[in-house]
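Morning run. Coffee first, then this:
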Amino acid sequence: MKIKIIIFFLILISICSYCLTENYATPNPSSIYLLQLNGVINPITSQYVVSGIEDAEVEGAECLILQLDTPGGLDTSMRDIIRKMLNSTIPIIVYVSPPGGRAASAGVFITLASNIAAMAPGTNIGAAHPVVMGGEEVDEELKTKMVNDAAAYIKTIAEKRGRNVQWAEKAVRESVSITEQEAIEIGVIEFIANDIDELIEIIDGVRVTTASETRVLKTKDAEIIPIKMTFKDLFLHSLTNPNVAYILLFLGIYGILGEFSNPGSFFPGIVGGISLILAFVAFQSIPINYGGFILITFGIVLFILEIYTPTFGVLTAGGVTSLILGSFMLSKATAPFLRISLGLIISMSLATAAFFVFALSKGIKIQWKKPVTGGEGLLGKVGIAKTDLTPEGTIFVHGERWQASTEGEKIKEGEEVEVLEIKGLNLIVKKYERKE
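And here it is:
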């Protein structure tokens, strides 16, 4: 009986010790998810942000910080991000950073949709006037509808988050843009922070309201968990850059031309084919002028024809002209971040023109070069008379024995002769006189 009582008390003591240990153990630090959205807002970046928020919600993160630096992007992708932010069960902090960064166009909407908005020194926010990505002409009525729709949307977001509604509407209707100091003074953002660590320290203890509750942030000593784009997403995101797509197009052109110039080498053709396919994929998400694209294609055709039917530069000149004109016409986007860099167009076009002019000059030089093989290669050569030429005989020239004759001149065996003319299989020669 005593043994049972002792065992019971030992078990009771163990349970109490376990409970006390659990209650008074140092709690694990909360976690903060950190996402970085740099560049154009598109379906790839939208999926990255939405997935990041979902993961943070599942893990019960204290909050999520979205470090933002964007010139804007697609309306549909922006709305996907904002929809997720407004319905998030965890606080979302948007931090416009690094210094020199911006939250323009769609970035303004995303910043205003956050629970807490902050900016780094030397950043700016604004210029949210909607633009037609394809650059096509629209009537005034449609423009007005687009602006009114965007203005109503941004006002709704600003009202929900308690931010400056009047400025938000001006950002859309008048494309106004302000610095971080102006933004905090007029109630567009809440904080200015030099870096992520300072931001985390500032927001500790701030009360925020999410879609599910009101809570006080506890970010002190929180673990920062960076969420980066996968290699696949980074690759696809890079393809949406019009400059990258343009470079891929030219790599494809060079590769295909290299394969046609040297059939069977395979490597240029493989690289060129892959580059062209990737360029076509990229152009699907970038508004392009098909007239410009046709001109570029026509230029490629002219280059290929020049390879097989040399025209001493006529087709090459046409190809270069077509390529340059097509390059300038290729992008029809009015949004600056969807236009091909003028410097890139000029440099690539000049480089292409210089390459083909160089190749053409070499080809012309070869065409005019004096033959060094065959019958014509014997003209002007010096040989040795193997027999007396009176006036006919045999000579040795260019490693071969030839029948030769002179025009009345007598040449003795062993004397040097110079080839003047070729008549069938007979060479017309004269005595070679060395110049002193």
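The chain has three domains: 28-229, 241-368, 376-431. Good start to the day.
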